[in-house]
Structures are given as C-alpha cells and as structure tokens.
Prior knowledge:
The chain has 19 helices and 20 strands. It is an alpha/beta fold. It starts with 21 loop residues before the first helix and ends with a helix.
Amino acid sequence: MATSGSKSPPKSSRKPTAKPTAKRAAKGAPAASAPPPPSAPAADTPPPVAVAVEPRPPAAAVPAPQPAAPEPSSSEPSAIEPAAIELPAAEPAAPAPAAAPAAIEVPVTPAPGRGPLKILFVASECGPYARTGGLGDVVSALSKELARLGHEVRVVMPLYRSIDRVRHGVTFQRTSCVHMGYGEEAWVGIHTAVLDGTVPVWFVDYDRFFGRPGIYDEPGAEYGDNAFRFGLLSTAALQASLDAGFVPDVVHVHDWPSALSAYYLKRWGGSPSPFARTASVLTIHNIGYPGLYHASAAGYLKIDPSDWRSDRFEDFGQLNLLKCGLVFADALTTVSPTHARELLTPAGGRGLAPFVSAREADLFGILNGIDEDVWDPALDRYIPAHFDADHMEGKSLSKLMVQRFFGLEQRAEIPLFGIVTRLAHQKGIDLLMQAIPAALDRMAIQFVALGNGDAHAEGFLRWLERAYPGRAGAQIGFSNELSHLLEAGLDFFVMPSLYEPCGLNQMYSMRYGTLPIVRATGGLDDTVQNYDPFTGAGTGFKFWDATAQALYDTLGWANATWWDRPHHIGSLRRHAMAQRFSWRDAALRYQDVYAHALAKRHGSGG
C-alpha cells in the first residue's frame, strides 16, 4: 500500500475573478464578493483576512466567553412541532449530474470462499443502546448487515447504567465467572437483547465498573480505571462465548477498549486452547485515542511479563492498549481507504505509524456505510415533511423549522450553514471559532450548531448566539431528533476536521441534499466530490489547509455559489442525493478480511 502524497485541488477549483454582482446586492448579500474557492498552498496566496477567536461584537457589547467559567449545559431541546409555514416555490429542475468518479479502494487480499461464519463483536459502544459517535453506529449497522449475509453474529458490550433495559428489552440470562489478574474472580451478569430483531447482544453487567453515568468519563475527567474496566470486558466477552457454547471463527474488536481480546485469544489457557483456530480483526476508528494507562494495570490485565516490551505493550513506561491490538490482531482495518494510507505516515499514525507500517500487508481501508433505513428524507420521522430529489418542498419547510427553533430570521433566501459535532480539537473547532464570526461579519449567511464537549467551545457557541441575534444559534448537548432536522434543513454542513478517519455526517448530509464543506482528509476526502464551478459537477466543497483562513475562504466560496450560481446549487444537491454509501458493500469486503485473518491464523498456528 503506497503512502499518499500531498494533493492539490483540481484546476476547476482555482480562484476565478472576484467582483461584486448586481444579483448579490439585490439579494441582500455583502457588497464585496465572498472569497472564491481555496487552492493548495501557492506562492500567490492572498494575505489572510483578519480572523480572530474573539470577534468584534455588535453595538451592545457582549463579552467573549471565558473557558474557566462555562455555563451549565442546557436541557434537551423540546419536541419540534411542524408549523403552518407557507412554502417557497420549488426550485427549477437541475441538470442531470455528471457520473461519479470511481471510489478509491485499498485492495483486499483474495482468499478462498467459506460458508457462514460465527462472528463475535466486542465493543464499548453499540447503537442504539450506548454510543458517543461513529463507533457505535458502525458496530450496530455492520453486525446487522453481516447477519443478513447469513453469518451468525453476536455483539458483546457493557451494561451501562444509562441503558434503558425496559425500552430495549434487556433481560438477565446467566452469570459468568471472569478470571482476572491477582487471582481475582469477577462474577458478572450476562443480559441479552436482540438488535433490531436481527443480532443477539450480550451485555456484561458488573456494577463496580459499569454502573456509572458515563461510558468513558464524566464531565471534566476520564475514569481513572478505564484499563481495568475494559480489560474485564475483553476477557468477559470470550468467557461468555465459551459459556454459551459459541466458539467464534472471528472475534472483531474495535479500538483500544476491546483490543485486549485479540491478545487474550493468543494467550488463553488450555491445551489445546478453545480459541486455537479463532482469528481476530481490529478496526481502528480513531488512532488519536490509543488507550494509554499506568503500567500498574498490567498485573490485573494478566499481561505476561515477557510481553511487557516496547514492540508490544510498553510505551515510554505506560501501557498502550491499541498498540497491543496492532501487534496481536490477525488483520487490521480502518474506516476509509484514504485513512488507511494516512495511518502509515508519521502525522496520520500519531506515534503508532511504525507499528501500523509493520502490518501493512494486513491493513485494509473499508469505507463505512450509513443506515439508509434511518437516514432517508423520504421516510424520516423526525422531519416535518418528507422530500426527495424531485420534490424538495419538504427541505424548504425543514429549513424554516430550523430557523424557528434557533430563533433566526425565517428567510428562505439566506443560506443556512451548520454543524452537528463533538466539540473537540480533532473536529477543527479552533478553526471554526475563528472563521465563523468573520464570515457572519462579512457575508449574508446564518449559522447554527448542535454539540457539546470542550467547555471553552461551548461558551463560544453561547456567545455567538448572543453576538449575532437572529443570525446564529446554538444548542449545547445532543438530540437525535434535532440532528435529523438539521441534516434536512441546513443548506451547508461544515466539517473542518483536522483528521477524520471516515465521518458519517457528510454522508447523512448528502442524502438530504445538504452540501458538505469539508477538509480533504480521511473519509471526508473519499466521500465528497469537490465542486467544479465550470460544470456544476460535485457533491460539496473541499479545502486542504488546516487553517481558519482556508475554512473562511471555503465558506465564502459556498456562499458566492449560493448567490451567483443557484442553478449549480440545484445540480450539486441532486448529485449529492444520488450518492449511495451501502453497508452491504462494506460487509462483503469485511468477509474478505475475515478470510484473510483466518488464513493467517491457521497458517501461523497461533
């Protein structure tokens, strides 16, 4: 697998002449043209605009947010009821979109065909029971699709306190004795439910570790015993499968919380071991969270002293759980082809690139899919009116509903930008905090945000809402219902991620005719086709530099397109809504990865 080099935007995205137009002035746009499309770094790059984290407030001076004293998070948004809003006229039919370019693929090693497999997923999250992001969506959707292909699939996850046992039909099944280090015997409860009537889920009930409000942390601090908590999960998953008489062909683990299962498969006692022919696959969802913990946890986790080495567990005196998975899993996957190449580089590997590179022959990039039964504007129960590419009136109604919910001016002609995100450095929030106020100062746009996380970012969003009344709004927290309404009602979805292994929101956005504005990294680069201003082809807008200036320029490019080329907006929407990101395609490729892992496991003898 070759490492990808630097990329430049296509010639069609380079800067056209920028002049004010009568059309923009008539629509109430800024007198000066918004910046045109950004390009890769060049010698003739214009001086940056003055974008600042603390922008100029309006006449009634509003102080900038103070990170040391964030306001408490607001409550969940109330239910959104459709209003009697007069719909604007439907937009004219757009020209037929150009054919999409072929998807970038990381080749999968062919392997002999096999019959149905027994597959055990071990994960810290699985939607809808407990999730914090894409990992939970992937575990849920991929396990169901593999089951539809005829495989016998089980999912093992913790029984967190937050899981509604009545709502999800979680029932007690049996107890299981889990042997941990120092001779500890942990008796855990195994509870069961069935995911969408398709996949049995086994929940590990151990109140000492999982009877807490959060999954990994509570506001302000990570749980200090996470290595112990998820080490228990990794062991309990294998023990529960033995107790149920379900010896898997493949154990599929996800990120650092369950990476130890790949190690335990190779170190399980018995002669022969009941797992002697069981292969393991590790999916890397976010290498930026490697699971680094104090070395003193090694004893409880039953790590053999001979494995306490820098090429296995030890990482500058600490315990690195993701490194363990990189070394002991029989095959590695990540969630997009471009991110698989990025992991081989020092920047993309984030300290683990040498260990990923050592396994390059076993590394596969498989693009995530989306659940199109859930994310479909023609069926979505969370939006006020259904729509499709030929009947867009429902999208116009959703936009006006978003404007009403956030207290914005209800004007269909103003482009509405927004985000739904975890407020974290990785997501490019620092870039956003500089670029959005400058854009609101200079462009005729509106902006809304839904998310929580970093206290300073939450404070900024509250400040933004006060500083730009009627033009900006924010909801701190997370609401599944509101996230669906935003995907339907926004005109542009902003994702300025510093790195993004796959990303799902850009796929959701395209499905709803909302045009993504993304930094060209990882799965964002794989899934979004850059706008060509000469032909109207594409599905969104890309930028390459991880700077506030590049983000600002691209917001301006999208805004200028909205005002100057509305027929291109229609074309982009139709092309975006025609994209399909199927979990069936992903599941078929995972079948090949499982065959590769099994061949490696059986050939090596474990």
